[in-house]
Amino acid sequence: MPISVQKPVTTFELIEFNHVRDARGKEAAKIRVIEDGEPQGFLWMSAEDLRANIRDVGPSGALSEALRAYGEKV
C-alpha cells in the first residue's frame, strides 16, 4: 500500500518591490516562500512568475500585492 505524502502548505510574503530592478527589466518582486510555517528563502519574481504561482498554488494576498506593484490589475 503506497504511503500518502501530504503536500506542504505554501504561503508567500512580499519582502519588497524594487523599482530600480523593474526599470532595468529585471525581476523586481522579492518574495519569501514559506512552507508549513517555515521560511524556505526568497525569490525574485517577475509578473509572469507571480501569475504562475497564483495558478499553481492558489490565491495569495502577497502575490496579488506584488502584481499590483507591477501595475497589473488583480
Structural class comes to: alpha+beta
State the end-to-end distance.
43 Å
| Topology order in helix (H) and strand (E) letters | EHEEHH
Largest sheet: 3 strands, antiparallel
Parts with pLDDT < 50 across at least 5 consecutive residues:
none
Number of domains: 1
Number of strands: 3
- Work out the strand percent: 25-35%
Using only C-alpha atoms, the radius of gyration works out to 14 Å
Relative helix content: 25-40%
Quaternary state of this entry equals single chain
Number of helices: 3
Overall 3D shape: elongated
- The overall pLDDT, averaged over residues, is 94
Strand order of the largest sheet: 1-2-3
Layout of helices and strands:
Elements: E1 10-17, H1 19-23, E2 29-35, E3 38-45, H2 47-57, H3 61-69
Antiparallel strand pairs: 1-2, 2-3
Describe the 3D structure.
The chain is an alpha+beta fold and 74 residues long. The protein has one domain (10-69). Helices cover 34% and strands 31% of the residues. It is built from three helices and three strands, in the order βαββαα. The protein has helices at residues 19-23, 47-57, 61-69, and strands at 10-17, 29-35, 38-45. It has a three-stranded antiparallel beta sheet, with helices on one face. Helix 2 runs antiparallel to helix 3. The termini are far apart. The model has no long low-confidence stretch (mean pLDDT 94).
